[in-house]
């Protein structure tokens, strides 16, 4: 189970127009012992871009050695 405050990667196309598969977010709440998660995605200024609920299979922990990437949200 992924814990709160962990960085995760979207592993599927998300249900939000500003997000893409591969975007990195932070777990802010864990549902039903890890069956689902509330994930917050922020921009470089720390402003929330999206706060979405996903199933456990929609995200994965970020791995050591993976490079974060910046892109505009517009």
Structure description:
The protein contains no helices and 5 strands. The chain is mainly beta. The chain has strands at 7-10, 24-31, 36-42, 48-55, 59-61. It has a domain at 7-56. A hairpin with a 5-residue loop joins strand 3 and strand 4.
Summarize this, please?
The chain has 74 residues and is mainly beta. Helices cover 0% and strands 41% of the residues.
Strand order of the largest sheet: 4-3-2-1-5
Whole-number mean pLDDT: 94
Report the sheet with the most strands, covering strand number, pairing sense and barrel closure.
Answer: 5 strands, antiparallel
Helix and strand run: EEEEE
Q: Provide the gyration radius in Å.
A: 12 Å
Global morphology: globular
User: How helix-rich are the residues, as a percent range?
Assistant: under 10%
- Strand content is 35-45%
Distance between the termini: 33 Å
Would you identify the regions where 5 or more consecutive residues have pLDDT less than 50? none
Structural category is mainly beta
Oligomeric form: single chain
Number of helices: 0
Tell me the total number of β-strands. 5
Which features characterize this protein?
74 residues, mainly beta, five-stranded antiparallel beta sheet
Topology of this protein?
Layout: E1 7-10, E2 24-31, E3 36-42, E4 48-55, E5 59-61
Antiparallel strand pairs: 1-2, 1-5, 2-3, 3-4
């Amino acid at each position: 189970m992924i814990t709160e405050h962990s960085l995760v990667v979207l592993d599927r196309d998300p249900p939000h127009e500003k997000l893409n598969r591969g975007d990195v977010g932070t777990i802010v709440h864990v549902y039903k012992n890890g069956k689902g998660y509330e994930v917050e995605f922020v921009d470089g200024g720390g402003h929330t871009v999206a706060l979405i609920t996903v199933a456990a299979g929609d995200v994965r922990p970020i791995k050591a050695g993976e490079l974060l990437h910046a892109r505009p949200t517009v």
